[in-house]
Prior knowledge:
Blueprint: E1 2-5, E2 9-12, E3 26-34, H1 41-61, E4 67-75, H2 80-92, E5 96-100, H3 105-118, E6 122-124, E7 139-141, H4 146-159, E8 164-170, H5 173-188, E9 192-199, H6 207-216, E10 220-224, H7 227-239, E11 246-248, H8 255-261, E12 269-272, H9 281-294, H10 300-319, H11 325-333, E13 338-340, E14 343-347, E15 354-355, E16 359-364, E17 367-370
Parallel strand pairs: 3-4, 3-5, 5-6, 6-7, 8-9, 8-10, 10-11, 11-12
Antiparallel strand pairs: 1-2, 2-4, 12-16, 13-14, 14-15, 16-17
Helix pairs in contact: 1-10, 2-3, 4-5, 7-8, 10-11
Amino acid sequence: MKKIFATGLILAAGLGFAAGAQAEDKTITLGYEMPLSGDRSQYGETFRNAAEIMLEDFNASGALPGAQVEILFEDSKNDPKEARNIARKFVDNADIVGVLGDFSSTVSMAAGEIYGKEGMPQLSQTASHPDYAKISPWQFRNITTQAYEGPYNADWILADGLKTASVVYIQNDWGISASENFVAAYEEKGGKVLSSEAFNPGSRDFRSILTKIKRNNPEVIYLAMFYEEGAALARQLQQLQIDIPVYGTSSLYSPKLVELGGEAVEGMKLATTFMPNNPAKNVQSFVTEYKTRYGETPNMFAAQAYDAVGIMLSAIAKVGPDVTRETLRDALAQTTDYPGVTGATSFAPETREPSKTLAKMVVKGGDFQVVE
């Protein structure tokens, strides 16, 4: 695979042309904005890794006779201002027909305002704030929203007989949405939230929050955060000798949670769209290829990016080499039962929201296991 460095990082995947294609084949360009530096760079690197696999396979498949696809990667640093700069750059590039990203809802929405106004299809693999897809008819996502996940987890926790809860969430658009959707559903269905505690992005010290929670003595702690914070919080729970069951959002799902948290994350429960031990042929093919290339098991974020790129490429293939921003948007809106590694994905015609299912997981014996 050949990489070209110009104004950004361009991935021209595919070591050869599709069968029957000639050297003068058309090149179709996509943009992908993601954090490649800063405290969320590990997510951007994961997205890029997965995108490289999907794009190379697509270009080698001959699914788009007469053309190949390249991706222009740009580093948003997970910063809304930087994302808006990238959005303007992508919009002004007449060769770019569609955009993927960004990582967080806040950053995706900041860029989305520009893409929506200028008519650029945007597909985010992880923006789960309910308002993201409402920006304009040009926004898509292939991850479940907190409007779905919050009530799903509330039902699960209540079914497990846990009637009082404390919530800990990251202080950003996504975290607020995750907290509010869980709290509303949990209390509507008979649970009681004793406290709801926010922390600033980048914080890893939860001792004061956990001391307060210990005084409230809830039956469960619900986390809306990422695996780095989740592992740190679990370790501090252990240090403070607080023995309360912990459930959380799918954002916690990563082998890194177990690696960083060790025995402190044993028993933690969460729901996810991706399981690397799923025996499905497409899942195992992706897991094997990812491990071979990058030396680690892909997590949910890699899987979400892999499917997001696949959905975008599938839509391009349906339109053909003469795809435009408008025809790509329409093809995306017609996506039905895309066979991804995170499950089949369809977009609701009016809302462009994905239809997906979640699997219940628990950390047990130093690994994630399906809750029967």
